[in-house]
Amino acid sequence: MSAPVLQVESLAHGYGGEAVLDGVSFAVDAGEIVCLLGPSGCGKTTTLRLVAGLERPAAGQVVIAGETVTGPGRTVPPEQRRVSMMFQDYALFPHLRVRDNVAFGLNGVARRDQRRRVDDLLDKVGMAAYAGAYPHVLSGGQQQRVALARALAPEPYLVLLDEPFSGLDPELRGRVRDDSMHLLKVSGAATLFVTHNAEEAMMMADRVVVMQEGRVVQNGEPEEVYCEPASPFVATFLGEVNRFDGLVAGGRVETPLGSVAAPGFSDGAAVQVLVRPEAIRIGEPESAGAEARIDAVRMVGRSTLVHLTLAAAARGVYGPDAPDGVHLHVRSPGRIDAAEGEVRQLSLDGDQVFVFARE
Ligand SMILES: Nc1ncnc2c1ncn2[C@@H]1O[C@H](COP(=O)(O)OP(=O)(O)O)[C@@H](O)[C@H]1O
Ligand SMILES: [Mg+2]
């Protein structure tokens, strides 16, 4: 294994005495896309700025391609770090043609090599035909491709992207995100990008670093952070969950949908059971399982979202007004044969069920 392209070690930072980052550590390997994911204000942009050298941390180190660029008594200026940064407003220079936008960061490079590199990159991002065009004639997606080419032109060790797709409208966003992922992968650059959108992180990233209030709370592949969340916060931030509270007895906890294993908890422990909507199955009428009344069935594109109220606990109150923990969301791929007002039986698929101590 070669050394990571980026190593962030125990970064701490604050503004005006207010701690913003505390002990942030993670790494990005060559060719890898890593996403910093977390709610607004958790310190993602600050982390990027420290990596880029736009700011000095109160403590900790940043190592890029084996060189300590931020550390005790040492700061390498941003322009010497071989890091390219793309912000939310990836604004191209309006008065420069596409070709010159991409060539912008290539001052030290001989003219002929500049030309070759720019042509090669525009070809890679599928924008060769627009080399002579001005940015204003390009669509949002095309501008994003040129911005990416501009970021890659100086052959950076590392590309940093801060919420790069949030300015695009939803239809465009999916396609640009997909394009960018493939382009970054083909370029072989190490990429660190920031988003507060969990689905975006899972679509783009080889690895997701989840942050909460200035700390890293989990670091893993998308499947890992979604299917094996380290805390209720991670479980909830990565996707919707239904929640049941219960007490552990004999290594298990009873929920309205059946008994769930609670390994590692002692008898009497107060736990919360978090269940992804796709882990609940709607059975045939009259089958075994907990009875629930269907409040609403909504096809939402790729899946159907079913709202239910657990009949036993509802005591005649259905819908969102029913007591806590008895209004459920179930998600099924495609269409589902279920009608509002029907009473059906529910069962649990043990995967996608998480047990945590109650906070
Ligand atoms: N220049 C600044 N001065 C003072 N506070 C700041 C500054 N930049 C960010 N903060 C604060 O630091 C925290 C983290 O901000 P930021 O890193 O931008 O979070 P994120 O990118 O995850 O939304 C927030 O509480 C924010 O208000
Ligand atoms: Mg930010």
Structure write-up:
- This protein is an alpha+beta fold and 359 residues long.
- Helices cover 23% and strands 36% of the residues.
- The protein has nine helices and 21 strands.
- The model has no long low-confidence stretch (mean pLDDT 91).
- It folds into two domains: 232 residues, 3-Layer(aba) Sandwich (Rossmann fold); 116 residues, no CATH class.
- It is globular, with a radius of gyration of 25 Å.
- The strands form four sheets. Strands 7-8-9-3-10-11 form a six-stranded mixed β-sheet, sandwiched between helices. The protein has a five-stranded antiparallel β-sheet with strand order 2-1-4-5-6, with helices on one face. A five-stranded antiparallel β-sheet has the order 14-13-12-15-21, with no helix packed on it.
- Helix 3 crosses helix 4 and helix 4 packs parallel to helix 5.
- The site of adenosine-5'-diphosphate has 10 residues, from helix 1.
